[in-house]
Specification:
Elements (H helix, E strand, L loop, with lengths): L6 H23 L8 H50 L24
Length: about 110
Amino acid sequence: MDNQSNPTIARIESLIALTERLTALITEQAQPFADAPLALRAKLVRATEAFDAVIARQGRALGAAMKVTEGLVHAIAEEVANQRSAQSGYGPTGVKPRRDAATSVTLNRRA
């Protein structure tokens, strides 16, 4: 599936491009604002603080979602390992498989 047909990926890529462009614009405009009237500079500071607050809140939400996802993956992997070892009897050679035998779980990295 290409990125254009996945709306989530397309939206994230748009946000990345927008953020990079905003960063460049703010860097370009930082010097001329030094000569701007105090009221206009104060308004810019308030707008920037509001933007920072929204970005920080979004970062916390993404971090929390990532922790939940990681916890679910670990819990699923542990349960799969427990189920595999609980259901296994004696192997074809007459030896019971080791309880600490490694097992693999395939995960889809798309979240």
